[in-house]
Design a protein that fits this description.
This protein is α/β, with parallel strands linked by helices and 330 residues long. It contains 11 helices and 12 strands. The protein is globular, with a radius of gyration of 19 Å.
Length: 330
Amino acid sequence: MERRTVGAAALDVGAIGLGCMPMSWAYTASRQSGDQSLRAVHTALDAGVSLLDTADMYGPFTNELLLGRVLKERRADAFVSTKVGLLVGEQHIVANGRPSYVRRACDASLRRLGTEVIDLYQLHRADPEVPVEETWGAMAELVAAGKVRALGLCAVGARAGRRPGTRLHDATIRQLERVQQVFPVSAVQAELSVWSPEALDALLPWCASRGIGFLAAMPLGNGFLTGTLRPGEGFEPEDMRARHPRFTAEMMAANQPIIAGLRRIAARHGATPAQIALAWLLTRGPHVVPVPGTKRPAWAAENAGAAEVRLTDADLREIAELPAGVGSWD
């Protein structure tokens, strides 16, 4: 697989990553299987994927433990990315950016992952009660201590409630400008896909101009861009899509023209809609690494295969002319 460089620390990874969250968190619980997830990770690594993206909150904790079982055998094949800054309660999630907590959380992640160093340690969300510079400073200390190789920041998100006249990622860029004064940012993770292209406006150019890697989260629109979801088929109650405005039957039906367009292009390449959506992301810049999530070996292999798809200028024009996604994420 083609290799790409992630950010200021010049970290080398496969062009396609693997998002591990669906194996333990947020999606259909009845279809989660530890053995199947382990096979998915091994399948991805066999195909040249190296970036494995997890977080301590996924499970919570069980996702890191699962990856630890793989890393015990294949640490040299993997680029480990995990996150800190969110605590999961019974019915809520809260931010914690206190330096003392960050240090304890890193040590706990290292134990669960069974590794001596985390390749990329990402701040999941800034704590509104703690200056982000203090949190970032504690993370920088972990680099100095040899526990972490590089630091990343996850985008603030939240389209709803932002001030009129501001862009989606303005708040994230302000955070980035603050933490850059403390220690270099190597990667930014934010949603970017065919139906959620907002990061192209300001955040992606900001990263490109500073040599910062961009991890494209939700590159397949939480499964919608695979073309395998059907309007009205429903989701299990604990699946986050069951409460998501874009996954109502009406919104899924309204967005079918996007899937139809991806299918047309896929047919010309002998590919799948998901592979076209991922291949499009690879054309957004050499610093972009899509991180599609899956818990199934077959889909891990399919996603990795997107790195071999070469879109033409005509394909890119056709994608650019697809209708915008209907319905808000927030």
